[in-house]
## 1
Amino acid sequence: MGASEEKVGMIRTVHAVLGALMLSLAAMMPAAAQEKTGLKPGFVLQAGTARIVLMRPSIRVGAQSTGGMYEPNADWTDQSRDNIGSALAKAQGGLGNSVRSYVEPVGGDPMKTAEYHALFETVATSVIEYQFFKGNRLPTKKRKDQFEWGLGPDVRKLGGLENADYALFITTEDHFGSTGRKVLQVFAALARVPITAGVHKGFAGLVDLRTGELVWLNADMQMGGDVRDADGADKRVRQLLEGFPGKPLDVVPAVAVPITPAQAAVTPPAH
Amino acid sequence: MRKLMLALLLGLATGAAGESGAIAGDKKPLPLPTYGQAYAPTTVDERGIWMLADEDERRLQDSPSRIKDPELNAYVRNVLCRTVGEDRCKSVRIYIQQVPFFNASMSPNGTMTVWSGLLLRVRNEAELGSILGHEFGHFELRHQLRSFRNRRTGSDIMAWASVLVRNSGDIRYNAWGQIYAFDRAQERDADLIGFQYLAGSQYPSSAAADVWDHAMLESDASAVGRRGSARHKYVAGIFATHPTDLARATYLRTASIEAADVKPAIVDRHRAAMAKWLPIFLNDQIKLNDFGGSEYVIGCLAEGGWSGALLFARGELYRERGNPRDLVSAAQFYQEAIAKGDAPPEAYRGLGLSLLRSQQIAEGQAALATYLRLKPDAADAALLSTLVSR
């Protein structure tokens, strides 16, 4: 319809930015400089005791067109949703923790739930931007071995979380490079222009429902594992849960924030 | 290679022109698509964008800015159904968002979003129907899918051009231009199909052009209020998402003159349906800091006579700008609003504050005292009482 001038301007800017992103031929990000995992110092999840609720994961799977556009694919997304769900249950079952999916109680407050989803997403992206990326740290996040983020203690009042200790949030986004994109990549390489094919990023976070604190966050902008099949989903979930507090999975945390013994002693034992 | 690129681009251009050319020059209107109930997407692309639209709709359902008032929702739905027909309108879910700008939008899966600023601006059911019909046209013609594919083709060309062609800036610029031209052609198609719905309904089809006439007048008023000058062009810029307001007003007016429909007048329920929300929407509008535009909108609403709510809103608008002369005018509007008998208690508050700032201390304090008497538990009662007992 008719947009007011401001609106048009805004859309235009967004398009311009999108265009720039799409066509940016440089490699997307300097992955080396970035940490991937944050863990609240001193936090230990007692394996075999935690009742974890998996909030509705945000999963997007599609292809990447030659020009870099995201082409959503409904079938792949459905498959991935199933695969990731069963892979998660397997991984956590191995730890002895119980994982169940969040069920909105009848007469619950879906608006509140949606707000907490949005809040988690905002907090998680802030952690990635202002803590994991060393060059961009906020002044209050510069101290060593510090991880202090949260959703506020009221999160435990959310209906449907009464009998749970932790809430697990998971977001993954996959754009599989199309044939056209890969051919373009080859030609571009001949012209000595680096082009990336495919976007595979995801993050997972664990929120302590008693305090509302974000106790663990893992983010990876270049993930492995083809979520469209069961084995790939297992691999993806392993990577998503890298550095998960509690008993380590078969993957050792790569760059987890180290916990010094002193701190571990000072901080109260985790519940 | 450059020639190849240009040929490709031309292909894209003629494709886009083909879409629009069918509408732009011709006399015969686009045929209405055949109606099918509960359409399900079929191709990979379409299923994909529907999936995204479904996710967005989940968010929209729980959005804090959504207006859930059943009466207002029923009214808007009713206007849509009267415009496009009882069977067609069943495939649409309407979400009214409290956003004070003039817009509405449509998702590929039949999610229609209507902003409160639109409801404030349209002056009758027919004008609202013309916009809702336009949005419905996007849905029925599957515009989002075609736009998505066009964007993909365009960005593919840009990507290849940037790799294979030296100094490919022109090609990429043109490809962007083609993408926007395609979208503008779709908007025009949607305008004209919306017009056809309107012409086939009980509403007068001239309302479609009226909407854009008023949009131009409002942007004129807004520009004057900001000490700028408004210019209306007929030809849209290369990166414009829509045809210009002037172009839309012109071709829709032409269409309505050709249609020459004479219909019996209907009982218009727009004002009645809006009555409860008018003060809230006006308050949102005033906060936009757009004096000229807001003054125009209030003036339009007052065409049938000034009500207490409108006078109060005008008082608030003037008091907010706050020049000494504005405070005098504001006080007058508040007093007139109070004299109408249906003004909210806040009229006394505004009156008191305007008078105090105009150095009419005693009268101002009296007005504030009246406000505090009428609304003793107001959020700002404690603060205002300090002004009264000064």
Note: The beta strands of chain A are 37-39, 51-54, 58-64, 70-72, 98-101, 149-150, 166-177, 199-208, 213-220.
## 2
Amino acid sequence: MKAAAAILIAGVLAAQADPPAVNRDAAIVNEFEKRVASYLKLRQDIEAHMGRLKTTPSEEKISHHEGDLRHKMREARAGVREGDVFTPEISMEFRRLIGLAMQPANAAHIKQSLRRSEPVQLHLKVNDKYPAPVPLQTTPATLLENLPKLPSEIEYRITGRDLVLLDAKANLVVDVLRGVFS
Amino acid sequence: MTVRQAGIPLAALACVLAAIPSVADDLPLKSGSTRFAVIGDMGTGDKPQYEVAAVMEESRRKTAFDFVLTLGDNIYGGSSQADMKKKFEDPYKPLLDAGVKFYASLGNHDNPNERFYKPFNMDEKRYYSFRKGNAEFFALDSNYMTPEQVAWLDKALHDSDARWKICYFHHPLYSDARFHGPDTDLRARLEPIFQAGGVRVVLSGHEHVYERVQPHNGIYYFVLGNSGELRDHDLKRSADVAKGFDTDRDFMLMEIAGDQLYFQTISRRGETVDSGVIERTQK
């Protein structure tokens, strides 16, 4: 009886120490989403003081809003370093998810899509602007299906071998995950 | 030939207008029909773009199309105020002044914030739909096809009671151009939805040529990415090419009259390089 109880307790302790993989993966994705939400909250707070960008016939207003927003975000994120969103644990999870997306059934399509959408070679850093003359490489639909959902104005972008988290409205690099694509 | 064009204080445009070739006006031009033009990969700001735009204006005077679909790469090399003026507002000034509305889709060279630019009529959205007569048009962002966009399209197509459903976006699902080739990942996601949703016509750019692809699963695919840019002689010989044109720039006219959709592709020289009619089929 004592032995059975000991096994039961040991089992419970083991379960607490080593949660099931699915829960662990979900927790990591949840942590990623929290970090993105935190970025977006900062962006929204800053934008609330600037006034929301609305449809306008003036491209100057659009460019000015984008530039002003980027400038203020850079100031607010002055101490941010690469890996603040893509922490080591989150990075590992992303590499796993990208690996899943690149299973043989989809790999050929994804690689073809990457090849045919004007691949770009950029070495972007956190808080960089995505340079205007450089085209945006398509992020393959199959890849997007396998990555955590993002708020509508934050995007996954591919530059060379890197996965970039880009704030499209401010045109600002939020974080970079290096060397995920071969 | 005489061109009645006044009030455009732009020397460059005036030079272009002085040399506008005669433009065919062959579409059926049926009473009450929906008429529109299509352009892609046009935003260079170079002379050929202005020349195509001038032929479009000449065509508008004859066919009275009242809106234009853009297939992306609307503005190359940045979208400052000066870029917008040189690469959109000036070349298309006669059309804009005549009240023609442009409905843009985004290409890989476009800043996504172009969705806030009023003359592009995107309502601040990267993908959207609008209705004209018995046709509904679905502008997609093929640069960033999220599951949310796919779900939106699926629902919007099913909810639409339009007799004609036309999707347009930048990256082609089928193409016989050498430079890029089709996006088969995108095709795997979108084509089943097009089929289930009753889409009959799909328009794309990206390749700097014109190609009418042989129909696939009842859907007519057009590639038109040479309204400003051109990749000379880039089309492969292929049985999948129903008609190709890769030696000059062009734009396309479309007219929807009941169960017929007429198309006519017109070169920078004013010549019709392709034309035909597509019959609507039941979903």
Note: Chain A has one domain: 32-177.
